[in-house]
Amino acid sequence: MAEETMPSPIRQKPVYRFAPSPNGSLHLGHALSALLNHDMALENGGRFLLRMEDIDQTRCTPELEQAIYDDLGWLGLEWERPVRRQSEHFDDYHAALDRLIEAGLAYPAFLSRGETKTIVRAFEAQGTAWPRDPDGAPLYPAIDRQRPQAERAAMQASGRQHAWRLDMEKAIRIAGSKLFWRENGDGQTGEIEALPALWGDVVLSRSDAPSSYHLSVVVDDALQGITHVVRGMDLFHATAIHRLLQQLLDLPQPGYHHHRLILGADGRKLSKSEGSTGLSSLRSEGKTPSDIRRLVGLL
Ligand code: GLU
């Protein structure tokens, strides 16, 4: 291959993205994420993309999306257009899901949230804790994974609603060797070993939404050529799932930077309903974009 056509990591422009869900308004935590992505892109001669993670069409609205553009514009950020909206790319996520189904790595999951809760409660009533994921949610019971093929087919044929879940044990086996990701954030750094087993059989698509966050985030990061994922520390452990899905779907792996979180007065992570730290209320109180940079510790 002639040298000038050879792909070179040195010549590749870094690509950053801020990927909010328009299901609420932006707060100081989002501002830190957006500003970091934007500033790093600028410092490194890279590109800054914005992505609307609006898979959940029941909670995401055009008004909230517009408010995000307004807040980011007010902060002084500029991003490339058009903005990728996940709701316009369901085919991409379906194709990825189909690959996992064809490889025998995904199974239809019929249990509702309520049924799962009942199973977990009944089990814990006997005095043993049900295993939980790093976010504290109970792992999905094995019932659907272990369901005999004929029964599974009959349930699907009857039109019963179901999600698709990853057969985690099998996926880890197929992925082969241990997986790592490159971390350069505010906590542990270096080559981090991915431990996706901690999450159990994660959801890939829901009965009421055609994809899951985990599946669409890895598909989009690959399709948009993202080289650097800069996001909150709350997604540090979930990166293990993303690394595994990248491996299974032959997707390139970006580098990761998980940044500190901005906590509320109660010491907890900010939520989207947090009025006092919402960017629009701070703006109407007369705060300036520089005040926001100061408040999130960037000035
Ligand atoms: N949409 C996610 C959120 O708003 C961010 C996902 C990501 O940066 O990977 O928390």
Automatic annotation (TrEMBL):
GO terms for molecular function: ligase activity. Keywords: Aminoacyl-tRNA synthetase, ATP-binding, Ligase, Metal-binding, Nucleotide-binding, Protein biosynthesis, Zinc. Pfam families: tRNA-synt_1c (PF00749). Residues 17-295 form the Glutamyl/glutaminyl-tRNA synthetase class Ib catalytic domain. NCBIfam families: PRK05710.1-4 (NF004315). Belongs to the class-I aminoacyl-tRNA synthetase family. This is Glutamyl-Q tRNA(Asp) ligase. It comes from Rhizobium nepotum 39/7. The lineage of its organism: Bacteria, Pseudomonadati, Pseudomonadota, Alphaproteobacteria, Hyphomicrobiales.
